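quick one, 330 residues, struct below
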Amino acid sequence: MVSVSSGSIVAKIRSFQDKPRSLDKLADNTFKILILLCALSVLGILGLISYELITQSHLSIVQFGLKFFFGENWDPVAGDFGAFPFIYGTLVSSAIALILAVPLGLGVAVFLTEMCPRSLRAPLSFTTELLAAIPSVIYGLCAVFVLAPLVRFHVGPFLARYFGWTGLFAGPQYGIGMLAAGIILAIMVIPIVSSITREVLTAVPQHQREAALALGATRWEMIRMAVLRNARAGILGAVILGLGRALGETMAVTMVIGNRAEIAKSLFAPGYTMASVIANEFAEAPDALYRSALIEIGLALFIVTIIVNACARLLVWSTTRGVPARVHAQ
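---
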């Protein structure tokens, strides 16, 4: 028989245990480095985009300076570029979209969160979020074949008859124009406002609802005082996120806005946005200054979008504080 000391047995056991631990530590470190590289790659992509936009628009920045954003003349033949008509079109179409989308999105979120029967909550939520997954070109086609004739023959005459005195609904009605672009943008913004608002509303503590009802408040008073008032910062963040989507939307707006670089008071008039002018004219830009002016518009839109989304995320976080969304039982 071979006698083996207890010390040698313990040493062998420890040697077998140390090998897996060292392998596990190597695997953990490798995984940590890979995840860190993934996170840094996002920042790297953002930095690369910023660098390319700044360098490619340098010629226009040097040539025109700040007056580029206040000039109203866009004349590629003469080499005179002013981006104010596109800024105006972007702001007006986005404002129309928010005016229409915010009440609808807020109403959908309140209904799904506070009043919807449990059997309908999942189908309605899925249908609302499905709107965000539809490609923008599909929205554009629907706007061309459905929305534009509707605006031209029904909505436009009604607005001109009763609100034409404001000057916002005057002039010829083509169907395509600022109003049509704003309406299609509103349809695209509704699921964003609704989903973010619903997340914010579900983060409001349930005991605040119960306390309001215990004090004799009606359901509407409970929603207004205990829910909406506590979620107003997050709702504002949802609205700003919707604004960010409206500012950067390209294809659907390009198909129905009319694509004319002019500043008109009437919402029936054609217009242009910062995103649509880049989509329409970049491939046809023959010289470096023309391309640089278009890229400077893209740089301005890029900066505005980052600021808008950062502010919106901050407002949403100030309400939710990272609290996961939950569904209230009926």
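The radius of gyration is 28 Å.
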